[in-house]
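Researcher: Sequence recovery benchmark, item below. Answer with residues only.
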């Protein structure tokens, strides 16, 4: 499977116990949606390698204790430590309206209600207290707070993200 056909689920944060179990950080909005996974891809030396899950127990703050088939020792589990974990993009339910997956809108044109075209969305920075969208306008970076009313429309067919930003914010960056 190619990386472009997947989405980043999280990463192996640390070992969990002494029998090959690991602590997987699920970098997603609702970790409980992934409690029934039976397989993930782990990036090892630039390749996505399938790993089958024999047990998964959700913990707090986005962590899960995971036991992979064939990973039965601390030594084998240590080789997975700090590795990125992916799932096929086809496993994501399709979102409608103003809802979007962070990876889905990267590359979209960002259009502000008052300012007009701001630039190209580079990333969604998912800070817990203050999430942001990072937009590039030529060589200039614009950071826009991603509040609950910021996004007005997600036009997937035109790859546009229509927003309302705080008055004067974009001008401060670009003018």
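Model:
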């Amino acid at each position: 499977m190619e990386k472009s056909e997947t989405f980043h689920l999280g990463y192996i944060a640390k070992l969990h116990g002494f029998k090959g179990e690991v602590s997987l950080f699920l970098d997603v909005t609702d970790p409980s949606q992934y409690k029934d996974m039976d397989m993930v891809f782990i990036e090892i030396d630039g390749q996505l390698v399938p790993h089958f899950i024999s047990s998964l127990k959700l913990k707090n703050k986005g962590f899960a204790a995971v036991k992979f088939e064939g990973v039965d020792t601390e030594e084998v589990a240590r080789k997975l430590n700090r590795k990125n974990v992916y799932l096929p993009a086809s496993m994501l339910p399709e979102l409608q309206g103003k809802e979007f997956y962070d990876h889905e809108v990267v590359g979209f044109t960002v259009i502000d209600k008052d300012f007009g075209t701001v630039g190209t969305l580079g990333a969604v920075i998912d800070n817990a207290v203050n999430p942001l969208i990072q937009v590039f306008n030529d060589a200039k970076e614009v950071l826009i707070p991603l509040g609950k009313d910021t996004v007005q429309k997600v036009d997937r067919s035109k790859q546009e993200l229509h927003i309302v930003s705080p008055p004067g914010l974009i001008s401060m960056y670009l003018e």
